[in-house]
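ugh ok fine here u go
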Amino acid sequence: MFEQKYFTIEKKDGSRIGYVSHFNMLHPLGKLLEIGYVIAPNQRCKGYCTEAVRLILDYLFLSRSAERIQASTHVDNGASQRVLEKTGFKKEGTMRRALFNKGDWKDGVLYSILREEWKEPKMHTRTEKLNNTLHAVNNRATIERARNK
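structure:
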């Protein structure tokens, strides 16, 4: 069985700049939970992707009985690797010729985070400051940053 959900990443002005997703795959040894993300090129290196990954980790560890969440990235994608490392993921190793991209097989890097490494939610909601919310709507959701007045 395969289940995948997408969450759009929106700026506070409502413009959509990317998405973060998670998917479950049943494996003979247990359930695999993996995340992925895409951010618009002109919105990279601004912290949006790191914030979205922190939110999806909080959401998944609070709503699922997951012991482990994993993510993979292209071996040359240093920015994506930095996002994973900043959010607590540990590099497990290189996956040889595991990703098919632009007509060719490429090496990937596998990362994971365990529940005990996550420990508690990282995105705290403040009533008068920054309010980070995740709204589920018809199998989609919006991560929005909104200031309370």
